[in-house]
Amino acid sequence: MRALLDHDLRDPASRSTSSPRSCGLNVGRLLTTFHVLLALAVIASISVVGIVLVNALLVIPAATAKLLAPSLRRMFVLAPLVGLSSVLVGLGASYRLDLPSGPAIVVVAGLALLAAWASTAARRAGARSAR
């Protein structure tokens, strides 16, 4: 499992299933387990926060982590942290500003994604100008 987590997502070879298979991992079982756990999380969350918020909390933290993390391992750690902090900050803003909690959480997550994108774009521009 460690070999699977060490892959860099930006490397096209890391998206292939042959490398995990060569490490002795059952890719089909891993994918099935992931899909079942994801489905259970979505089903449990929909009744609590609604479909739009569930979709936002699945997509935005993962996209933010993908922009910031240099490896799959760090992305797996960073994505839930981004999601949790978005929820906590969004709920705090909702309470203090008397706003609906769902939209406040999505706005905070969106702002985190925007900040990550701007940071990544600035780093790339700096790297290009240094050449």
Task: Offer a few descriptive terms.
131 residues; mainly alpha; 0% strand; flat
Would you mind describing this structure in some detail?
The chain is 81% helix and 0% strand. With 131 residues, it is an all-alpha fold. Helix 4 (51-68) packs across helix 5 (72-97) and helix 5 crosses helix 6 (101-130).
Give the uncertain stretches in residue-range form: none
- Series of secondary-structure elements, N-terminal to C-terminal: HHHHHH
Mean pLDDT: 82
Portion in helices: over 70%
Number of DSSP E strands: 0
What overall form do the CA principal axes indicate? flat
Query: What fraction of residues sit in β-strands?
Result: under 5%
Secondary-structure-derived class: mainly alpha
How would you characterize the largest beta sheet? none
Rg is: 17 Å
How many alpha or pi helices?
Answer: 6
End-to-end gap = 37 Å
